[in-house]
Write a structure and sequence with these properties.
Elements (H helix, E strand, L loop, with lengths): L10 H11 L2 H7 L1 H15 L5 E6 L6 H19 L10 E2 L6 E5 L12 E4 L1 H8 L4 E2 L3 E3 L9 E7 L15 E9 L3 H5 L8 E8 L14 E3 L2 H10 L6 E4 L6 H9 L5 E6 L2 H13 L5 E5 L24 E7 L17 H4 L2 H15 E11 L8 H10 L3 E3 L18 H6 L1 E3 L16 H5 L4 E8 L1
Amino acid sequence: MSVFPRISLSPEVSDFLRSVFLNKEVLAAVGHQEAECRFQKLLSCLSHPPLYTCVRASTHLAPLEEIRHKLAEELKKQQMCDSSAEDVSVQILPHPRVPDVLLLPVDGPRPVKQLSSELVVGAQCGSAVLRGAHVFVPGIVASPKYMKAGDVVSVFSDLEGKCTRGATSFQGKRTFLGNGVAQIDRSSIFCTDEPVKGIGVRMVDPLYQSPSFDGVLPSLTFLQNLPSVVVGHVLGPRPGERILDMCAAPGGKTCHIAALMGDQGEVVALDRIRNKVDRIRQNAQILHLSSIKAYCFNSTQAVSSDPAQETEGPPFPPESFDRVLLDAPCSGLGQRPNLGSTWSLKEICSYQPLQRKLFHAAVRLLKKGGVLVYSTCTVTLAENEEQVAWALDTFPCLALQPQGPHIGAEGMLGAGLSPEQLRLLQRFSPELSWDQTGSAAPFPCRADRDTIGFFIAKFLKN
């Protein structure tokens, strides 16, 4: 059900995406009307949150059912604190095909009345609120002139990034997110020299209601989109193997790989940004995983020119790893909810060359007989199916492999791949079932279809 306007994109980016979803192969297969319908549904569903919150359970530390029970108890306590109701029920569903996933239905859109006192947040903060977060102070861009802690305010998201920080009102393009209670005075937000952190508005009546996972069972649960969990299973890590995660921050997939190995073996995690590498290490520590070694390093340069090199860290000799995950930097156009993007077409198209540099390094670092998984959280052909076609042409040693579990759709037409090749790919395409994922669709079909946009390809190096 659409309650928000379609994702706000620049005209050039919108036209580009339309050309992707109405390419010649798609038009020949489904016709212009159906292709246009899918594109319009994509723009609508991207601005809305998925129907389920996905939690990856740390089944290397405790059985799934035990974690499910503990999580239910914690969330009941949270809801009883936020509600006067005595009978609080929390629905937590195990995924039938992904053994370490728990799914929590999102309640929304809810009938929430807008108030006269209005507070505005940035689009990124707004997206977090739609997935269950409270409003943190750095996300606030405008608030009522005399706002005090304890005031009830309506929270809006600035869709185009045009609200001036510190404003007392904003009449530009915005959308309503729900109501909350201010935890801080306006003067403490905008009139201080030191940046303020912490919760600025505690959401008490959000348009979309999901539990807040702040501090909830941090070692046993990890918030992660369903397709991102599927990636770890598709990679198929085994105890004792040496595995490389090339673009690892913030470490969710890295930690999942280590957990699937039973923390036996070695998972090397690389990222270019120092504080992001620190985050990987923190997550590994919280999840009690000791097999992870994280390094601040540019993965395009991760292959050593000296095959005899014996150093522990990067760069590494060719054929050093049993499996490689290339969860590549991408345009991120599959992320949900995304109320608006200010990116230019040049920025959107800048990722393909970088992804190919990383691909070259990944293939060289992979042992013969090893597995390479390539994934993105975007919806473009250039970063997904076209990369697969290029890789198969560039590296004759690579062959596509079946994926398990395969709960998404097959690959998208438009890159010249054969039907057999497309069936081996996994594209999570929420637009294919948008407005058809309501109560009539059986569980877990609703959860499998209404995800972020995501892409997975699995290769074997012969």
